[in-house]
Amino acid sequence: NRWEAGQKLYSNFILQTMNGEQSGKAEEYVFEAFERTLALDTNDYSIQAYALAMPSESTLAEDLDVVDPVALHKARGGVKKAIAFKYYEDIKAKYDELAAIMQSSSSGDDIQLDA
Fold first, then answer.
1. What is the pTM of this model?
2. List of long-range contacts for 70-78, beta carbons under 8 Å, 24+ apart
3. N or C: which end of the chain has fewer CB within 10 A?
4. How far is CA 18 from the centre of its chain?
């Protein structure tokens, strides 16, 4: 499914970054996947948010024989920053869109929040 494919893509790219083996193609695939997921026209925002989230450091550590928590944190953070810088305007637009939906929904019938 889309979430698993995204998680694998993120994981591979983060681990490549950690090992200094980044390829331009891998970065391109990660950016393209993020952009497509962010641009999805859906009313199920929780699934979209879930698909945009990178794997946690503990999940990434499961794929490693020897875990270097500092290097893993740095690599994951670097990938996260690269995505944030590249897609700042798109992320902000999505945030503003969702904020407007929340404000215009006076009865709360359109959006249900899980408690």
1. 0.80
2. 71/18, 72/14, 72/18, 74/18, 75/14, 75/15, 75/17, 75/18, 76/14, 78/17
3. C
4. 17
